[in-house]
UniProtKB/TrEMBL annotation:
Residues 252-264 have a biased composition (Polar residues). Residues 39-115 form a coiled coil. Residues 189-199, 266-289 have a biased composition (Basic and acidic residues). Pfam families: CC_PcsB. It comes from Blautia hansenii. Residues 189-215, 246-303 are annotated as: Disordered. The keyword Oxidoreductase does not apply. InterPro entries: 3D_YorM, PcsB_CC. Gene3D superfamilies: 6.10.250.3150. This is Peptidoglycan hydrolase PcsB coiled-coil domain-containing protein.
Length: 396
């Protein structure tokens, strides 16, 4: 009766041990899922923040282009103002010259008018005596007519010169008036250009203020993305640690000898049956290559290799097509070497891993724990390698 009770207790403990390990694995997997959910939410927030940064930078760039255009307009206005000022100065000089000419023309006109007026007055007052004197003093009729014609021509000349001086004076006045009107237009343009300058300067000031606001927002969003990246990196480390823990649990479970159902206790001698022969001690069997014997510690074999689990195995090169480092170096700062360098998170740099009989060194990052990326010098060889699953051992 006691032996039966002991046997039942042993069976119960063995069954419990078989149940507990999967429970641990399930618990670890739930933790991984929870952390991955948090990481996914943070990645979504990171993408949103990066999208806002992109939008703000686009708006800022548009304002920079607009500001450049405003600067060009301001420069053109400055050049126009200089041109207007030059034209105004030139017109002022023309006006000064015209005023001088006008003064001279008016003076000549007055002189001519005075001379003509004197001649006319003289001829009017002495017209009869003049003609009698010319007639008496003339040698003949022809000379008299000639002198009379000369007097008439002189009168015509006086009138003609007076008309010309008047015309010149009128032309000078007209030109002077035209230049004054042009000057008024130039003054108006000058005023409009100054007002436009003030308007553009005001717009430029508000544009710079808006750009500064965008820069402040961009800086705040960059701080947010930095904080989110730190969170994501911490969560990645935590997830890698949990994946490693899960893989270690799976490896430990796979290394334990399988539990067999105990045979019934036949030590009690049944009635009317002869006692069985004394049992001989069993000879220990040599374990197979893929299993560990009872002398091995959990996940550790006699060769000093620790079984990590069945990992996904892929390959990569150092080119941009495989998201390689621009410096050409690994994350640990070493030069990658084909046949030696592998990448995996969650395990220290320099750790030796044995995969399909070959030993590699962890020198790079980029893939989570449980996924080993083997370095190849050429992208073609990396693509040809493809993807596989293999048992991975840590070499001490």
């Amino acid at each position: 009766m006691r032996k039966k009770t002991s046997t039942g207790l042993i069976l119960g403990l063995l069954s419990a041990s078989l149940i507990i390990t999967p429970c641990y694995a399930a618990t670890t997997q739930s933790k991984i899922s929870a952390e991955q959910g948090k990481q996914k939410e943070n990645e979504k927030q990171l993408n949103d923040a990066q999208g806002r940064i992109k939008s703000l930078e686009s708006k800022k760039n548009n304002l920079e282009e607009y500001l450049t255009e405003l600067n060009n307009q301001l420069s053109e206005l400055g050049e126009n103002l200089q041109d207007i000022q030059s034209q105004s100065d030139a017109r002022q000089e023309e006006l000064a010259e015209l005023e001088t000419q006008l003064g001279e023309a008016q003076k000549k006109e007055e002189e001519q008018y005075s001379k003509m007026k004197l001649r006319i007055q003289y001829m009017y007052e002495n017209s009869n005596s003049s003609y009698i004197t010319l007639f008496l003093e003339a040698k003949d009729l022809s000379e008299f007519l000639s002198q009379a014609e000369n007097m008439s021509q002189m009168t015509k000349y006086d009138r003609k010169m007076l008309e010309e001086y008047k015309k010149t004076t009128a032309e000078i006045k007209e030109k002077e008036e035209s230049i004054k009107k042009e000057q008024e237009k130039l003054k108006k343009l000058h005023k409009e250009s100054l007002e436009k300058q003030d308007e553009i300067s005001s717009v430029m000031k508000s544009t710079r203020s808006q750009m500064e606001e965008y820069e402040t927002q961009i800086s705040a969003e960059k701080d947010t993305t930095k904080a989110l990246l730190n969170k994501i990196n911490v969560q990645s480390d935590k997830i890698n640690a949990l994946i490693k823990q899960e893989k270690d649990e799976e490896a430990a479970q796979s290394q334990k000898p399988s539990v067999q159902t105990p045979k019934p206790d036949n030590t009690a001698k049944p009635e009317n049956k002869p006692a069985p022969e004394e049992s001989k001690p069993e000879t220990p069997q040599k374990p197979e290559d893929n299993n560990n014997n009872s002398q091995e510690s959990e996940g550790q074999n006699t060769s000093g290799e620790k079984y990590l689990g069945k990992f996904k195995i892929t390959a990569y090169c150092n080119g941009s097509c495989c998201s390689g480092h621009s410096s050409g170096l690994t994350a640990s700062g070493t030069v990658p070497v084909q046949g030696r360098t592998v990448a995996m998170n969650g395990i220290p740099f320099g750790t030796k891993l044995k995969i399909n009989g070959s030993v590699y060194t962890v020198e790079d990052r980029g893939v989570p724990y449980g996924h080993v990326d083997i370095y190849f010098e050429s992208h073609e060889d990396a693509m040809e390698f493809g993807r596989m699953y293999a048992d991975v051992y840590q070499v001490n």
